């Protein structure tokens, strides 16, 4: 499945538990685009005592992530399809807490999913020094960490070079996601993403939300914005109750079995 080209292998373990498997090793194996299936990460569906279903997320490097905006939209589409009695609002247990995605539109292959991403935390401005260059950054957490940097032109950012250096900076002991954002207007921004544990991706849902929050906090964006990513667009709204709402597509590519 994919959300704007940010792609995932979804494994349903609700009825067949993945007992005895090292899920980090499984992610490394399956996400390899040459010797495996190929993906930015794997999503594991499992039973939950506090929500409709539990979601675990493993990046392509085997590390476990707390939350993934594109991933949970794909996850919600799959769970919706698996329910005998359909319900548009689905509660999902994650390491970032209970997340509530809602199916807005559905036509089989594609769904438009709205997700209440909750209240962003630990918003602060900081100065980061990489290779003797100083960056003014905005730090935002959606259960997972983000480092947002404002630039005049994202096309000039050499993200393969600077992304991993920021991700692994001493400022971030648990590493961080990195976003470069260019403001087009108060209603629109363009973003390039370096995801922690994955590398450059075509889209990042939590990253898009972090960029919106950073831009709104700095007075550069309105509270309802369009975030343009290499894989497509996401609608982000920061509501008066401080909850951030994410809207975007999720698509099923194919289903299969692997031994």
User: From the 3D coordinates, which CATH architecture of the largest domain would you assign?
Assistant: Roll
Task: Please state the average pLDDT score.
Answer: 96
Low-confidence stretches: none
Beta-strand percentage? 35-45%
Brief summary of the model shown:
The chain is α+β, with helices and mostly antiparallel strands.
Notes on the protein architecture:
The mean pLDDT is 96. The protein is 17% helix and 42% strand. It has a 17-stranded mixed β-sheet that branches. It has helices at residues 23-31, 69-82, 159-167, 205-217, and strands spanning 2-3, 6-12, 41-46, 53-59, 64-65, 92-94, 97-106, 110-116, 121-130, 133-141, 145-150, 177-185, 188-195, 199-201, 224-229, 232-238, 244-251. The protein has two domains: 2-116, Roll (Diaminopimelate Epimerase, Chain A, domain 1), CATH 3.10.310; 121-240, Diaminopimelate Epimerase, Chain A, domain 1, CATH 3.10.310. It is an alpha+beta fold.
Identify the notable features of this structure and list them briefly.
17% helix, 17-stranded mixed beta sheet, 4 helices, alpha+beta, Diaminopimelate Epimerase, Chain A, domain 1, single chain, 2 domains, 259 residues, 17 strands
List the helices and strands and how they pair.
Elements: E1 2-3, E2 6-12, H1 23-31, E3 41-46, E4 53-59, E5 64-65, H2 69-82, E6 92-94, E7 97-106, E8 110-116, E9 121-130, E10 133-141, E11 145-150, H3 159-167, E12 177-185, E13 188-195, E14 199-201, H4 205-217, E15 224-229, E16 232-238, E17 244-251
